[in-house]
């Protein structure tokens, strides 16, 4: 692993504009469960009854109970050395964007600034009917499930569910950043099963952008990236910096 870590160090030395893409593996060492794999959430819970607009229409109470439970769990978690290393990397780059699939907000807590939260944030709520206002709400446990706005409109977690569009503000950030190709993209702790992510990485490779993966296990990206580092994000990333 040390050889690969040195290689990434070398890549970083030459890089001015860097993007990092993260997934649940980055928060695993903070105690936030991942989705897939042996102890992943999707082993015990069915995404189709918890993470789709249809599931919310059919049973908002069940969906909110699950999100209230996850909020409680995440509230006890702190950023780990991987989050901290990513925040440090941002501070040392001329231009930097962090693209995350995580909704836990731990990158913010670690001090990362320029973030595109592609799947939203579990600490924000949104009205489910117009006007679709959205705001931060860190209440836990929620007093009433499902929570409602003053006029009785159901609130929903401001996260992206299966079948929904990505938030346009966040995709615009990403498109803006990549309109001038970065020198390096580091993909950390994701099983890379989400279409937009695979699409981006294929696009980067096609335009000759260097891509490095940090993951405990091989993924669908491992064969197409320039370098794969097999290890814990919380051990590898601080070493690189
Ligand atoms: P997954 O649970 O699919 O994948 C987690 C990845 O992290 C796996 O590849 C693990 O090998 C790796 N991993 C675990 N611990 C690690 C560690 N300490 N260091 C490095 N790697 C580690 O999570 P995501 O890929 O983030 O979407 O899942 C993507 C999306 O699918 C989520 O945002 C969620 C889910 O369904 C929605 O809910 C819309």
Essential attributes:
241 residues; alpha/beta; Rossmann fold; SIR2/SIRT2 'Small Domain'; 2 domains; 9 strands; binds 2'-O-acetyl adenosine-5-diphosphoribose
Classified by CATH, the class of the largest domain is: Alpha Beta
How much is the radius of gyration in Å? 18 Å
Provide the number of structural domains: 2
Strand order of the largest sheet: 3-2-1-7-8-9
Q: In the CATH scheme, what's the topology name of the largest domain? A: Rossmann fold
- Calculate the mean pLDDT score and round it: 96
The largest sheet, given as strand count, sense and whether it forms a barrel, is: 6 strands, parallel
What ligands can be seen in this structure?
Answer: 2'-O-acetyl adenosine-5-diphosphoribose
H/E topology pattern: HEHHHHHHEHEEEEHEHEEH
Low-confidence stretches: none
